[in-house]
Amino acid sequence: MRLLVFCHNHPDLQPGGTEVVARGLFRALRDTHGVEGLFLGAVTAHHRERRPGTLFQSIGAQPDEMLVWLSHFDRFHLSQVDSWGLQELVAFVTDYQPDVIHFHHLLYFGIETLDMVRRVVPKAKIVVTLHDFFAICPQEGQLLTTDGRLCNGPSADGCKRCFPGRGSTDLVLREIAVRGAMAGVDLILSPSDFLRDRFIAAGWDAGRIEVLRNGIAGGLAAPPRVTPDGRRDRFGFFGHINRFKGALIALGASARLSRQGVAHDLALHGGTAWQADEFLAEFKAALEAAPDARHHGLYGAAELPARIAAVDWVVMPSIWWENAPLVVQEAFRHGRPVICGHVGGMAESVRDGVDGLHFPVGDAVGLAAAMRRAAEDPGLWGQLSAGIAPPRLMETAAAEHMALYQRLLGEVPALPRGRRAEGRARVGLG
């Protein structure tokens, strides 16, 4: 099987959840299932300079991972307007002749790429995983209004309020173009029930969207933090420092606890790359107003266990719905309960009072109350930590993806070694 994976960046350049999941899944399929393939991460001038003569660049020492330089992307229409530049990508796909093409995002590649690859490799099966709401929400795929309110789904009037400078025709044409491009896809995947339900509510065909959950890499778990007094009052934020991920909400909660005299520590782990000056100024002011909070900067995957070992709780204060947050799975792998908003993919991933705590999304006061309860209830951490189920590993996700690809290709997957004789007897071959 020849597999071609498209992703909107590479985790070595931008370690977001989608990039980490897509590359991890690709490597697991390669190493465990013997899949031959290539991982193509799209980049723009923000990430790499254009190299003369080609769209393609190497990344690290992996010969099967490459970058594709694609600028001129229209984020509203999900359109790659440089059709001439795409010709080199199309020629590459034509020469490679993959059996399966898996898109983990359409950012930078554009919806046109779906049509192009369908034309040049008509026998290939095309799979798209929806990692956010970009396909139904032009507001950066967040389903979040411009004034910060949660949106339940696209509507003519609602979308017009977010884009007052655009005519209704633009909104309609965007929807028609996205749905038209997706019509040529063999299967659409969602990592969560919540995201699938939002697309169905927006009018997408439920029969074409399957839920296939993400997995994470295995490894040794960080031990619980040693606490001589039994107090569990150290909180960690892990992720991009931006408005959507709620860093300002976390800092507001910490500042409130400090004013109340509640002993605690909040460690923020994550980079601030590509953030607007206005947000960075707000973040700096909020950090200065929270004396018990510290920003520890960007971290790599290898550093996560050591950083998470220093905290008791993982705080996830995202102000949008989220989908299938990778940080939740990582927290659970290390036995850390999660404090998160009470909606969307967060609420689906974290069970309130079982393996974490919920608070009203976007509410710094509500988060402060949950953090205070976590710090001052001596038995709560042990109760919630014991309620954590082992997270789903990448090997499991890879095996399920492999079975899915084989199903689409009409292949019969081999039975596990211990069941082959039983299978042969059952079908009259033994």
Automatic annotation (TrEMBL):
Residues 15-216 form the Glycosyltransferase subfamily 4-like N-terminal domain. It comes from Falsiroseomonas selenitidurans. InterPro entries: Glyco_trans_4-like_N (IPR028098). It comes from the Bacteria. It holds the Pfam family Glyco_trans_1_4. This is Glycosyltransferase family 4 protein. Signal peptide: none annotated.
